[in-house]
Fold each of these.
Amino acid sequence: MDLHKFRGGYLRMDREILDSKAYRTMTKTGMLILQDFLSFIQWDGKQKFKGERKTPARMVNGDALTYSFDEAERRGFTRSSFNRGITEIVERGFFRIQKHGTGLHKDCNVYAWMYEWRKWGTPQFTPGSRPKAKFGVGFKVGHRFYPPRGVDGRTSIIVPPVILEAQPETAPTSTVDDT
């Protein structure tokens, strides 16, 4: 299975990242997801003519990276482990969420590269956050499928009632005239 079938080039990972405390203390899943993100980055600065000096490499798309849950599943990650890995990467300062996706109609999060990971483990470090999306998707209060809350605040699992048409009970009628 060729995971990088439609992408050419290489993965660029500086030694500074490899030697950092933020990278060294990550989980295996977090490391793999970070490496996938780094393979999505396109670099510019190649040598144009033979003998010409190379220009320093720079990121071309470092502020517009997408990595969807569907793509993560194709790469072998479960949704829960991918979610934990993304949270770990954002909290350590490697990426921030540029735009929150809704999860509907192929609208996924857009991530941007950050250098905050260099300060990880120091007092100057400010951890990234991954807040819950509040788009108003789902059933609203008052809808019959809205999950009612129990006394302890948890959602109780109740199957919605099936609405049956009630047949009115009527006295049997006779066709014979009794008069």
Amino acid sequence: MNLRYKILAFTFILLSFSLFSQKSDSTIQKNIKAKNAIFIEGFGSSASVLSLNYDRIVYQSKITRITVNVGVALFPISDPSNAAHKNVFYVYGFPVSGNLLFGKKKHYLEVGLGVSYSRGLEASFSSTGKSVFSQMLFFVPRVGYRFQRNQGGFFFRLGFTPLIMLEDYTYWQFQNTPHIKFFTPYAGICFGYSF
């Protein structure tokens, strides 16, 4: 299946959860005012160093919540073979995920499933000036802790987010170099604001 179709199908499934948000308990709806969050994640689901993310609660009950989030990662790297020119390239990624939260008030156990497209985690630089950057699609499960108050304010997440490669669109260009493994243990930490 083509990368575009995989990402579109996964996004459609995640966003379809919003249909269930109308069925949640009305008293819970009134108590939870902060359904949105914007945060910066270090490492984690983007398969990069830093990412900027948006998260939305789409369903809630007394002890469970379902959230969806999207993000973008951008990280500069330089060409080590061409120190004189100091060429700068960018690693970027696009994580999309759905999460299930268990807990009350502000402390939650968080489990989730996501995908992340990443370009540039691996790079090959040549003296001719031609550069090749990896393009990979990862499945990213998440298990961790989330702190999010019902009324909004400080937002925090810490989780185990292993990267499981679904597709490597450039493997043939990196056959003679060390390569990212199929399964890479990874973790992420997030700081942000909920509103």
Amino acid sequence: MCVSNAQTDSPEPGTSQFSEEQFSFSPHEFFSGRKNISLNSEYYFGSNAITNKFFNYNYLNRFIDNELKTDVSERLNATGNRLGAGFNTSLLFTYKTKEVAGTKTLFFAGISNRNFSEWIFNRDLFELFFRGNRAYEGKTADVSDSRFRLYQYQKLTWGMFSINTGDTAKVSFGYSGSLLIGQMLRDIKLNGKLFTAANGEYLDVAASGNMHASDSAHTSLASVNGFGVSADFFFHYKISRDCYLNFSVSDFGFMNWNNNTSLVSVDTNFHFEGVEVDDLFNFSDSVLSDAMLTDSAQTEQFLTNRKKQSYSIVLPVHATVELFYEIKEEKIFFTLRDEIMSGEAFNNLAAIGMGWKGKKVVVSAEVSYGGYGNLNAGITASFLIKKEYSLTIGSHAVNGFIVPAFSTSQGAFVSLKKYL
């Protein structure tokens, strides 16, 4: 059976296409329905304005000059700019197959580590963070409607696939359930304005928002700061001998972070005229003292509410529909895909692709638009090695490596599978 690309359980659609649940339906699968164990890894980054070069320089703590900043500034919208990034690894095991009366059932289990982050921000927030407030002298910077989310957690997954192999069968389906173990949470919402007086004489700040953060004293892989559950659903419909339709919903679930989760709320108006420095060369002065950071005169005007309590989140739900058409005689296939995800940062993603499948090599390419980024081109290649192993490598934003100064997305994925 040769149908659409398998979809990852990653929250970033258009990235690595490795999911134990759907990989049996992928044209990059050499032995459909065979027991196997696989190790998968991926990373992704996408934005409507932040270039790969800027992102790489910032991540590597390299110097970001004005030319790089200006290049990004010219791409930014006044509001609603978006950025998403993540890194995922998984170990997957299809441990049992059972075939009865034209139906093959696959049972699978897996463990994975998920890192997901996304930002919604406006132009003023970017300018203040990377250039400071000098350009806003006599003006008001508006940083309202800003949101940052970071989730890190592990998944323990079990599920099954029911594949109808008969000539008249049209529908195959599968599902999985996962126990989630929360490790790290950062969820920040910010609304605010900053007025800078002429010559920087004073600042007027009006800010409101809140931050939820998991226990900062426990951030290792063994830390348990919350629990949750999620479910995935998959459907495959055979339209004709050469045409198929796939539909999937992943990460339908929630996470409850424990009562060591911090909640910091801000709702304030603040007038700032500077701090008094008696001795410029005395670094124990008030500028760097603990009192500057903790005294109520400085901080309590911002932090009106600080407490610890449990916090529940709904996971970003990802849905995909894909149409697949195959020309068997030429070993060529075509795909048309659309993806959506709940939340504010991810735009509808549409992709069109084609590929060629041989006995030991499969190659496919696609063009996509949307998601966290803009226009992207991707390529995937799979290789069968000694009939026991398969290796798949690729990227859904290969342009990010070719022209990093102009592209605003990048990513790569790899999967090594051992057939049993």
Amino acid sequence: MSETRQRAVRRAIRRLLVSLGIAAVLTLLSLFWSRKRLNRTPETTTGTTIGTTTPLPVPVVPIGTPPLPVPDRRQAEHCCSSASAATSAAPTEEAPAASRKRWQAAALLTQTPFGARQHEGGASSESHSPETKKKFAAFVSHMKAEASMEARFVQGELETAFGQRIFLDSDDLRTLSDLTTHVRESDVLVLVQSKSVLTRPYCLLELLTACQHGVPIVGVCLSKHSFPYDFNEAHAFLSDLDETLATAAPGAHELLREHGIHDLAEAAYLLSCCIPKIISVHLDTCASRNMLKATIADLVATINL
């Protein structure tokens, strides 16, 4: 082999060895850094911010500690909305007397002990708990001249469903002075909604007592009836109760004053805020047996909300 060819072979071998050496060094370096990264075990969980690393403490929960209760979303929403309503509605020193009375009525609504779960019409799950068991499972409020048979039907069906006493004035009321006491002793007030039920002073007294003492209210609407209930008329009547009641039921003012309801403007505002929001179940006593069973089942489910 010529000398020139030998020099070319030696140069090729040197270049190959240099390339292999560089590749070996790079491989060793990559293995070294990979192993070093795997062996790194952080002792704390860190939160990274720009330019800093702040350790975050890890909470230690002892074995056997009961879990924290999950907050009720509807209760939180109700508390927040009630607080904001009371704050925004607070009157100034220059506010007129009518505005001040309306704010007091709104404050009364927010302070009413409606229980742990607030329903739209005032229904509360606390009223059916064993710790707060009351004398009556329900109080049936109605106008006898228009809905006495429907009230009797509702009473009998609810007593069968709940296995407890259901208040009906013709069975359980001995003296009128005990009327408001019986409302407070009931888990829920069932309002049989007929055309003129809200013109009766005793029905208004029962509703006011329920609103003031946190007794849930559920409606039984008689829409297909000789005396049908109209929601729009009822809301308009309650909004101006201090004026409309004198025309619809002369002498009702005096009866309400005898039972401690002196300010009808405040009572009107309280009822107009509470009654239109209750859940109503429509009852048609001329319907089939299966339809009536379904209606009572719907009423029971609404009461248990």
